[in-house]
Amino acid sequence: MGGLVETGRSALRSALERVGRGWGRVQEGRPLSSDLLESDDAYLVVFDAPGVRGEDVDVTFLDHTVEVSLERFRDFYDGHDLVFPGRGVSLSGSVDLPRDADVTPEGANATLTRNGTLHVEIPKRGESSDVDVVEEDD
Question: What pLDDT shows up at residue 86?
Fold first, then answer.
């Protein structure tokens, strides 16, 4: 009877591992959740990035699109074996800024917060100019 129970546990563990790896691939295929916010002087893109370290994040700004890719690693816990590897480790996402956004990549910054979000701030161009008002001649 003990061999049958052990075989059942082994089969269950194997099935959970396959399901978990499949779920991780599904998660990796989905874009990261994000919000796009705007202030008078910048755009702010907030991505969900739980379990990531700063050195494992790549942020690119190209043609009004903020692209993020990240790698996260699973921590090992003493006395525990991984049964269900359900979290994706290679994640990415992108956000398009409005086409009429007048932005500059100079001065852009990215901050990885302790609560697992990545804040990417892209400043608007500081070169605002007043519009001259011209009166027509009579």
Answer: 58
Per DSSP, helices labelled H in 2-123 are 2-29
Cβ neighbours around 49 below 10 Å, total: 25
Take residue 3 and report the two structure tokens written for it.
């061999």
* Cα 69 to chain centroid, rounded: 7
Per the rule left: phi > 0, alpha: psi between -120 and 50, beta: everything else, 5 is: alpha
Q: Exposed e or buried b for every residue in 80-110, given b needs 16+ CB within 10 A?
A: eeeeebbebbebbbbbebeeeeebeeeebeb
- Measured CA to CA, the distance from residue 34 to residue 45 in angstroms comes to 7
For residue 81, pLDDT beyond 80:
no
Structure tokens at 21: 């790896």
- pTM metric for this prediction: 0.67
CB neighbour list of residue 69: distance below 8 Å, 6 or more residues apart: 57, 58, 90, 91, 92
Over residues 33-75, the pLDDT tens digits come to 899 999 999 999 999 888 888 888 889 888 889 999 888 876 6
- Helices assigned H by DSSP within the chain: 2-29
